[in-house]
Amino acid sequence: MASKTKGKVKNQKMILIGVLCAAVIWIYWDYMIKPVNIDIKNLMTELSAKQQKLETTRQAAIEYLVLDAEHKILKLEIIELERKLPYKKDLPKLIHDITKSLEKNRISIQSFVPDQEMSKDYYSETSITLRVTGTYHDLANFLAEIGQYERIINTFDLSIAPLSPTKFSSDTISASLRLVIYIGK
User: Which domain does 23 fall in, by range?
Assistant: First the structure.
């Protein structure tokens, strides 16, 4: 019987040790591992959200750089367009430039009459009516030269009549034309 009691006590000790081990493992799991796993899960969720925010911020930074480059290009285009269609008249300088071109191309000015400004939706226009004398090639060179100005100037109502050269003048044509100058609003 002593051996049976020893075996029973041994079994009870083994069960007690097993229960204690199970209790220690359960306590370790419930109070140590489980909270750490919850913290890890929360931190992983937070990390994922911050990585997504970082990626969104990187995309926004790339878009900003693209938009900034486009903005700079548009500013350059606006500067170029303002040269062609300026917001200010600056008519005295323009008249000076046209007069210099006429003189350079050996064209004699008979009359130079600026007209009133006409307002349109997005721009206004001023015209200058000219009557000139010279040679056909000189007139063509003058028209080509003003066509190369940065500012937009159109030629309208061009009429050419022949002239007989004299010993005082080598002019072979008389021309009248209207130059239209555009001004932005």
Answer: 1-84
